[in-house]
Structure formats: C-alpha cells, structure tokens
Amino acid sequence: MTVAARNPSEERLLAYAAGTLSPPEAVVVAAHLALRPANDAWVRRLQSVGGAFLETTRPADLSDGALARAMARIETDSGEARVPPSLNDMTELPEPLRRYALGPWRWIGPGMRVRDVHAPRDGDCRVILLKIDAGRETPRHTHGGVELTCVLSGAYATETERFEVGDLEEADEDVLHRPRVVSDEPCLCVVALDGQIQLDGWLGRLIQPFVRL
Ligand code: ZN
Fold first, then answer.
1. Residue 188 gets which letter from DSSP?
2. d(Cα 84, Cα 87) in Å, to the nearest integer?
3. Gap from CA of 56 to ligand 1 centroid (Å)
4. What is the pLDDT of residue 56?
5. How much distance in Å is there from the Cα of 58 to the middle of ligand 1?
6. What's the confidence (pLDDT) of residue 81?
7. How far apart are the CA of 145 and the centre of ligand 1, in A?
8. How far is the C-alpha of 70 from the C-alpha of 50, rounded, in Å?
9. 88 alpha carbon to ligand 1 midpoint, in Å?
10. Residue 160 alpha carbon to ligand 1 centre in Å
C-alpha cells in the first residue's frame, strides 16, 4: 500500500517562506524541508520570487516586465546556502537542527525520552526532540495549542494516519490522538509544542502531573 506523504498546509509553508511563522514552528518546518527536497525547492522559489520583486519593482511597476526580470534573476541566482558549523552531538539530525544546543535526555515514561532543543521560543511554544521505542504508544491526548511534529527516523501511526520520515503532523486543541510507533526501530521526532499535552480519561488525569514535555 502506498501512503501519501504528509506535508505542511500551504498556509504554513507560505508563512515559513514569508518569514512570519513562529520561530519554534519554523525550526520544525526547516527540518521537514531538509528531508523533502521537492517542498524545499517550492519554498525557495517562492522566497526568490518575493525577494526579487521587493528588490526590482515599485508597487506601480508590476506590469512593466517585472515578472520576467524577477524570473531571470532566479535562474541566475545559485541560491547556495552557507552551512553553519555543527554544534550538537546528534550527527543523525538534519542540518537545520544541528546548529542548536540540546538539553539532556529526560525519561517521561516507559520507552519514551524527551530532549530540549535550545531554539528560539515563542511564549510557551518551544522545540523538543521526542524518542519513542518500537511498539510504544503515547497516552491519548489533546493539546493546549499547536503541536507540529516531523518524523526524523522510524515511523508512527495515529488512529487515522501514518507518518514516515519527513512527514509532518499538524495538531492543535481540536485534535485528540494516540500516536503509536509502527517501525522496528525507535521513532525520533522534532516537535514544536505550545504548552503541555492534555491527557485523556481518568488514568490520564491521574498521571498528568508526571508527564512534563
Ligand atoms: Zn499530540
């Protein structure tokens, strides 16, 4: 069975390209783009068009061959990005995540560990790495805000979808799910998480104080 790739919404990619996405979400989208070259090319093209228009046109000048000039600039622009020095100890991470310092691994439950990524925060929204062993599942939960997850290795499934390497899941306070690792290896994800997850059911409410992501 072929499973469709799970991509960010167009709105989120546009916000990323425009530089208006919140910094923690932008870190997760950057990791996704490093793993999905086709989406990365789309975003770079969008950024080139936007940048070229800003540099070459005035508001009243758009009909005067501006598009052709902008596109010509894109063709001649090599677009090569400078690779920053690697800082952290996880060589398996995609390049955009290598530049951030990492906190220690913390145990949050059987077969589940979490590690802070010291990337820019946005209020209570921050970036974490989550590593869950094969066959494990998280408690069923909803969210205090956005939860943006990109799979870096392994795979997981929710009740309705499956997420492989490079896939991105967009969840929020309206989503109730129970991700379960379905790969033979542990599943490593990078997550932008706003606030804490909110566990479902009586057992969830009992153990909620112990689950601090
Ligand atoms: Zn969740």
1. E
2. 9
3. 44
4. 66
5. 45
6. 57
7. 10
8. 9
9. 26
10. 13
- Measured in angstroms, how far is the CA atom of residue 51 from the centroid of ligand 1? 35
How far is the centre of ligand 1, averaged over its atoms, from the C-alpha of 74 (Å)? 39
Dist. CA 71 → ligand 1 center (Å): 41
Long-range contacts of residues 81-89, Cβ cutoff 8 Å, at least 24 apart: none
Cα of 188 from ligand 1 centre, angstroms = 14
> pTM score > 0.70 for this model?
yes
CA distances from 50 to 56, 70, 74, 75 (A): 10, 9, 11, 14
Torsion of CA 148, 152, 153, 157, to 10 degrees: 20
pLDDT digits (tens, 9 = 90+) for 10-57: 999 999 999 999 999 999 999 999 999 999 999 999 888 877 766 665
**How high is the pLDDT of residue 77?**
52
Question: What CA–CA distance (Å, rounded) separates 187 from 24?
Answer: 20
Q: Which two tokens stand for residue 177?
A: 């799910």
Tally of residues, the chain: 213
Give distance in angstroms: CA of 65 to centre of ligand 1: 48
Residue 69 pLDDT greater than 60, yes or no = no
